[in-house]
Amino acid sequence: MSHCHPETVNRANWKCSVMEGDLQQLRSNNRNLTEEKEQIQEEISQIEQHCSSLASDNNQLKENYTVLTNYNNHLQKIYSITAKQKDVFQNNYEALINKSQHLRLFCDTTDMQKPCRPCPQGWEPFNSSCYFISKDQKSWKDSRIECLKLGADLVIMESNEEQGFFKGKTDDYWIGLTYYTKTSDWIWLDGRSLTGFQKLSPHYLDENCARSWRTSWEAWTCDTKARWICETRALLLNHL
């Protein structure tokens, strides 16, 4: 039986000791890695739960956004309807104010016992209209402004009878008729074209406004000074 050399034994023991130390270190490292792995897995699990929670919150936010968008669209429709109703109410209010102011021309608002007049004081009635014949002379534009201030407009002739009503009252006055160069047509203030019972003298250059001259109508330059006649509706029950 052979015997190992002491140096060989010592070297072997040293190697075993080193390997034992390495093994212990590996075991320690393995435990540390296992703990780190478990910690990482726990963190991953928490992250996954957090992501799931965020996804759920995101879906809820999307649902809320859809609900709010639909609600906003509904409010926009309500606002649009309300704005239109406001415009209608405003127009009705302004019409009522205008009618009230117009009514004051015919009725004594300080004494409601007095009957209303068919025409404002100083105006002349004919059929269903009232007429104001000016004493001053102004241009066609300024004459119309004066009529508008009175809640009326320049007269629009409807018939020979209406034309004849003014015979002897005045022979020279502006009427609500102007010439439109774009259409080469004479247009009444209510938008109708000149047709029917009356004709105008030939139109020259800038003679774009019409006035009654004795028994005919003539084209004149609009800056010419002349008297004018305003027309408004007579006070009728079915117009109140």
TrEMBL record:
This is C-type lectin domain-containing protein. It comes from Paramormyrops kingsleyae. GO terms for molecular function: carbohydrate binding. PANTHER family: CD209 ANTIGEN-LIKE PROTEIN C-LIKE, KILLER CELL LECTIN-LIKE RECEPTOR SUBFAMILY F MEMBER 2. The lineage of its organism: Eukaryota, Metazoa, Chordata, Craniata, Vertebrata. Gene3D superfamilies: 1.20.5.400, Mannose-Binding Protein A, subunit A. The keyword S-adenosyl-L-methionine does not apply. Keywords: Coiled coil, Disulfide bond, Lectin. Residues 126-231 form the C-type lectin domain.
